[in-house]
Batch of 4 targets.
Target 1
Amino acid sequence: MRAPSVAVVIPAFREERLIANTIASVPKDVAQIIVVDDGSDDDTGGVARRTSDRRVTVLKHPENRGVGAAIYSGYQEALRGSADIFVVMAGDNQMDGRDLPQLVAPLLCNQAEYVKGNRLIHPEFRQMPRLRRYGSILLSWLTSWAAGTSWGDTQCGYTAISRKAAQALNYADLWPRYGYPNDLLIALAQDGARVVETKVRPVYATEESGLRAWHILSIIRVILRRVLLAKLRKSAPRLSLDDGGAL
């Protein structure tokens, strides 16, 4: 049997300054790199195409659809290939490629279908901007409550998903913009997927955190939307044979 292969999905919006560094940070044993240029009005896609890395495929959204939508496009492109595991690394170079082996390890051992990085348990967690750190704690608590489980860092975008779990996702139902990790995590939990976390290093050098207070409020609305959808589905009447329908 062949060894499991990994594809890395890189969602990118206006990242012409950092996208080449992000690509260079991807470990050499990764089979495929899929850069999804989410409607950038700079040269993000062009810089990605001009790298010497032959593993790179660049997709282009004609307009900005949101980071979640970019990731889902990357998953769907990866499903057309042969990779067994799909890893997400943001285009802003805030993820350490050296953490990738421990991120995918639970999938290789069949301990999970989805793995999230957790920056808050790393010794360097104080590198995170204060608003992002405390906002992540708040949103992790709220997302855990909504999913009926416990996660420490729901906002970390460094993730790995099995091919089977990616195939099973209802992409039309997933939130495409800010709040996508919370929506996806709750959806996975509701479907009974095994989700685990692993320690990853937070990287904040010349990059700036994009999280703002209004983003936190928007994400809370996304979480409540997913909870409401679940309740509506549970309360929806089911057709029976007596109604002339099908079970």
Note: Confidence is low (pLDDT under 50) at residues 239-247.
Target 2
Amino acid sequence: MTSPYLVNCSTLFTELPVLQRPAAARAAGFDAIEFWWPFPQPLPAAAEVDAFVDAVGAAGVQLVGLNLFAGDMPGGDRGVVSWPGREQEFSENLELAVDIGRGLGIRVFNALYGNRIDGVPPAEQDELAQENLALAAKAAAQIGATILVEPLSGAARYPLTLAVHVRDVLDRLIAAGVENVGMLADLYHLAVNGEDLARAIEQHRALIAHVQIADAPGRGAPGTGDLPLRQWIADLEGGGYDGFIGLEYLPVPGVDTFAWLPPQERGVPSGAGGEGIA
């Protein structure tokens, strides 16, 4: 069975306003999408939230995944989960995100861990992260969703760069009785960080709850670099993964960004992948 693809509307269709991107994804043949947190602040006005929800609904696509508020991403922030002093902000954003998810059927929420903060011991940040992730998982469980933890590249202060780093976080949560957590395996981030992907997939497949792809070098569409993405996806599927494959790559101006993917492979095949994230 082939895992269905979905479009990350925070990296693709960026030439369009946010509210037009779900319809653009549908016009390109996709049934499902994901977004980073689509607002500049953790608690946007109700009218802004309603407009976003309405845009997704009107487009006829499923919003499978949503990032929680991650701070000032353009300024270098990579999450507030482990950031002391932002606990209330995290909690309030989480409540709103789950409310959005309740209406749109979101299955996974990506909680970026957060950079290391000067003057705060790493152990203190990790303890806070465990508390916040457990809180997030409890809230997400209300709608049958899973909280994701992701390794990243290109962020020097972000402590989770390899699959084993994420596994350590998840193992502690699971040992404490938190069940609805998993790894977001972004194959691009892991590859450019030097991960042995074939080995990582084999070792950590039971924890992989969502997958994203981009090629390297360049973080472009599959085929623009030299990563064996098709092989890694086949390895995941061979081990039982039947969730979505998120297309989180960067477009090239003037180039058909989906030319590599035949139209018949873009939607959710009947009976495939649409019932849940592995």
Note: The two ends are 13 Å apart (CA to CA).
Target 3
Amino acid sequence: MSYRSRVRDLGLVPAGPLPEGVKWLLITNVAVFLFFYLGGLVGYGRGLFGMLELVPRAVVDFFMVWQLATYLFLHGGFGHIIWNMLTLWWFGVDLERTWGTRRFLKFYFFCGVGAGVCVVILDYLFGNPSSGTIGSSGAIFGILMAYAMLFPDNQVLWAFLIPIKVKYFVAIIGAVTFLMSLSPGESGISEFAHLGGLLFGYLFVRGMRSRRPFAFDVIGPAQRGYRQWKLQRAKRKFQVYMRKKGGDRGPWVN
């Protein structure tokens, strides 16, 4: 069997057209990278790039909460974006085909934003809250975890040479990432984001398997809370009106 056929049989090259979610994530990430790279705008703390990278102190002190999502689309170099996008392609395609585009995109941003929250918390506790973090690795590591939970016995090629089951591949990556997180560097590619992505990927899939599936829904609770607030406000206005009405008309006479 040729090397090319073996790679395809092991699932390293997904067959068929790209599903919409993966396709547009690839396009968006590459377009943003080229915009900053070709414009010479890549650099921590520089201009628009600095406004979009994830800096825990900026999120907490200046409420730049958009950074929890925008950092996912920033990459520092060709190697950084190539490996993230290849992993998105290799593993994300099967997840999107299994779940559908809407759930896959919810999952992607759930893991990415969740990883960003982990970066903020852990950098304040153990790292440097003024350091910047960039890259889609938080979401990508979530994809790896989900793939290992859904397709644990599928095989991939370690270093493009050695067949290994996905569950062992992700377990090794998780262990290495944890060890590297014990001495975080200043590269902008935070191991805390990688660990957070693995954690939130695990939580999402476990929630789907439980009797009460986990739902990543920010707008729904906000809408319900707003409706409840309006109802309580209307009740208070009605009570005030009835008290005034009762005072104007005097006591009830039966």
Note: The two ends are 98 Å apart (CA to CA).
Target 4
Amino acid sequence: MYSIQEFVLEIMKQKNITTKELAKRLGYSNITKGIRRINAFLQYDEYNATIIDNLHSALDVPKDVIAKKLEETRQQIEKERENNFKPFLYCVTTYQVPSPIFVCAITRSYELKKVELPHNFNDLTEEQKMLTIQQAIKEHNEKVYNKYGGIIPAYGAIHAYTLVYAYNANESDLPVYTPDGTLMENPPKEYQSIRLGVATVGFKGGRKNIAVLFKDKIRVEKN
């Protein structure tokens, strides 16, 4: 359990605050919905902005105490994301933001924006890395061509593949490859700007939305 959940449960126990009472204190007019949101929060399925922004007043504790617990939680999740990180290729397409969005949702074409690489990728020799990248790009291109005629729905044509080799890698250091697997010299900076959606973290039970904790600090989905 993360710091913020431990703290909330501790205060609820100390002050004998039920989940129903907490929902009222958080300002939910629909108590059933509030209880559902709180349970999701306590099970770290979701970090809801309504809960995060009003937790200090609902529990009657200083705002900076909540901020400290949230920061501890953010760091814990950051560490978890780092430990779970696996190198991948980011597929650079005509449109960075899918349009129309419903096509992306229906086809799940966003899954084609990320090409997984082996866990041991960083332990390979430079020659092995290049061969692995070229093979991954070839297979990805074939998959997109066979399924969608070479165009990723809602994202457009493939322009390049950017290698994200480490969790904390600087964007300016990310290598970029052409659709035929050739390393680009001096690639456009926009090709090194990786955007894969809201911040989430993977668990055994699924994926948890943690975007509200990062306040736009994290915009790269890397696991």
Note: Strands lie at 88-93, 114-116, 151-152, 156-164, 176-177, 200-203, 206-209.
